[in-house]
# Entry
Amino acid sequence: SESMIVCQNSILTKWFNGKELALSFSITLTFARIGSVLSLIALPSIQAFAGYKIALWVTALMCVLSFSANIIVLFLEKKALNYISLETERSDKFSVFEMLHFPPSFWLISMISFFFYGSVLPFTSFGVKFFIT
# Structure
């Protein structure tokens, strides 16, 4: 889902600035997390009721619906760009070597995020089996 969040955020940066951008990021991330929670709640129930094949088909259907919604957003954005002018050119050029000059707080936050996503989030899926056995 991280690649999806990157794509969503790149779309949002075209349409929002400042406080509105922060709000749009938080709303997008909130809905992504709500989807994850609903998935963890609903799919085991579907699997228990109808079997794992149906649960996989439900998951595949959700992926198709998500992809279709993204295609619709793509067409709507292209149509909207014909009517309004957005600043899409960036005057700042980024070099990979500039990362060496990032402050230590950036690297600390990056490492915390890396270790959180790498250790805690996989545990949400496998933790139940760990505690049962």
